[in-house]
Amino acid sequence: MKPLRVALADDEPLARARLARLLREAGCEVKAELADGAAVLAWLREPKDVDALFLDIQMPGATGLEVAAELADGRQGPPVVFVTAHSEHAVRAFEAAAADYLLKPISADRLARTLARLREGAPRRAEAAPAPSPRFPVKAGEGHVFLDLRRTTHFEVEEEVVWAWAPAQGTPQRHRTAWTTLAEVEAAFPGVELVRIQRHLLLRPEAVLGLRPLEGGRAAVRVGEGLDLEVSRSVTPRLKERLGL
């Protein structure tokens, strides 16, 4: 199979180097590694023979969205794949006709799906556009309050009650939800990546503050002050890859 020719732009040197490495490991030919939006626009002044352009959204000089707008405004260019740590940009990214949308840290599996889509010229799917973080109700006295998923570290099921954990004034606290199984939680947030690290624990990877190895191939992740969660041996390699380790 002929390798995809790609270019990428990210103002963070480590993130740029990691993405370039992942692309090369996936069989791509990396034609350019650019440090900011202005460099991308300068590079695109002449037609480029590339199959895709991977753009960080938040860059100095010109954001990834501004570069995409330039391409949409009559300038010929390759399909754009946005790369960012912030899921709230998803809607604007797809309004800009992005070919795909990747959340950092990028896993090799997720990147492989993007590359397959680029090779096939397939249309965007809902999987590629994470929805803005939803809220969900939890019990508060006789009523309910709403938690933002972005503030939730993990979900725990205990005796057919699902508890959502979220920090309050720096201290992790659990809140009772209406769900009875973790499968119901997963179904409630389609397109949001949640990792089942134990049979009773569902983790939001972006909430991880640190990770340390344990005996037997297991790991412990810190999600709050004084709160560590054990990750099963079977899940540890996948979670480490998801975290860019």
TrEMBL record:
Matching SMART domains: LytTR (SM00850), REC (SM00448)
InterPro entries: CheY-like_superfamily, LytTR_DNA-bd_dom, Sig_transdc_resp-reg_receiver, WalR-like
Keywords of the record: DNA-binding, Phosphoprotein
Database matches in PROSITE patterns: RESPONSE_REGULATORY
Domain Response regulatory: from-to ranges: 5-119
Any one GO MF annotation of this record: DNA binding
Entry keyword annotation includes DNA-binding: yes
Keyword DNA-binding on entry: yes
Residue positions, PTM 4-aspartylphosphate: D56
Protein name in the entry: DNA-binding response regulator
Biological source species: Geothrix oryzae
